[in-house]
Amino acid sequence: MTEEEAVFARRSVRAYFERPIEEEKAARLAEEAERCNAEGGLCIRLVRDEPDAFRSFLARYGKFSGVSDYFAIVGKKGKGLYERAGYYGERLVLLAETLGLNTCWAALSFSKGAARRAAKIGKGEKLVCVIAVGYGKTQGAPRRSKAAADVMRAQDPPDWFLRGVEFALRAPTAVNQQKFRFTLTGEREVFAERLGGFYGEIDLGIVKYHFELGAGKENFVWRGQTGGKKA
């Protein structure tokens, strides 16, 4: 499965089998996390065989079960952290999908204390959220989506722009709020913005990664921003 195919195949999954991730796949995930850290100025860790973060009341309320492996999305406190967390976290989500694994973003429905201890959060670092990863009991369910016209502004948009929007609409967002918009401000210039909502900065990073994947980074530049990369 390619990364592009993963965009359309992937669904959020909250219930997992107690089946360990194979060492080869875990190594791929950990290596990619290190690349994301280097590019995005983050400190993401792959936490393995640690079920406590998803044994809390919040996790049960969020209908999580069987989770013992997850990415702790961590970074130094500072400007742009949440957007970069979303951008690079989604890169890891799609890699996991290509490896035959399932995932789910979690910003509230887990024990932050347990995750902080397991990830060994250092001074000046912030745990933004986590991403459950493993073998799901299901492949997830499709969700409703806004129309492309609801999340874009453009006059006679080129095909690459429309494909970017199509991919962005496949991105996971908090409670499926999809509060974002892409505006074509020039021939090859795109402005991405969040339109309120909670965890909107994380969502913006996620949808920008999807947009880049669909549109092709060679076809445009972000207006006044650096995409997911650290400024």
Write the layout of secondary structure elements.
Elements: H1 3-9, H2 23-40, E1 45-47, H3 57-61, E2 70-76, H4 81-98, E3 102-106, H5 112-119, E4 125-134, E5 152-153, H6 159-168, E6 180-184, E7 189-194, H7 200-215, E8 221-222
Parallel strand pairs: 5-6, 7-8
Antiparallel strand pairs: 1-2, 2-4, 3-4, 6-7
Helix pairs in contact: 1-4, 2-4, 4-7, 6-7
Summarize the structure.
The chain is an alpha/beta fold. The chain has two domains: 3-134, NADH Oxidase; 148-222, NADH Oxidase.
Structural notes for this entry:
This protein has 231 residues and is of the alpha/beta class. It folds into two domains: 3-134, NADH Oxidase; 148-222, putative nitroreductase (tm1586), domain 2 (NADH Oxidase, 3-Layer(aba) Sandwich). Helices cover 35% and strands 17% of the residues. It contains seven helices and eight strands. It has helices spanning 3-9, 23-40, 57-61, 81-98, 112-119, 159-168, 200-215, and strands at 45-47, 70-76, 102-106, 125-134, 152-153, 180-184, 189-194, 221-222. The strands form two sheets. The chain has a four-stranded antiparallel sheet, with helices on both faces. Helix 1 (3-9) packs across helix 4, helix 4 (81-98) packs across helix 7 and helix 6 (159-168) crosses helix 7. The longest helix has 18 residues, at 23-40. The protein starts with a helix and ends in a 9-residue tail after the last strand.
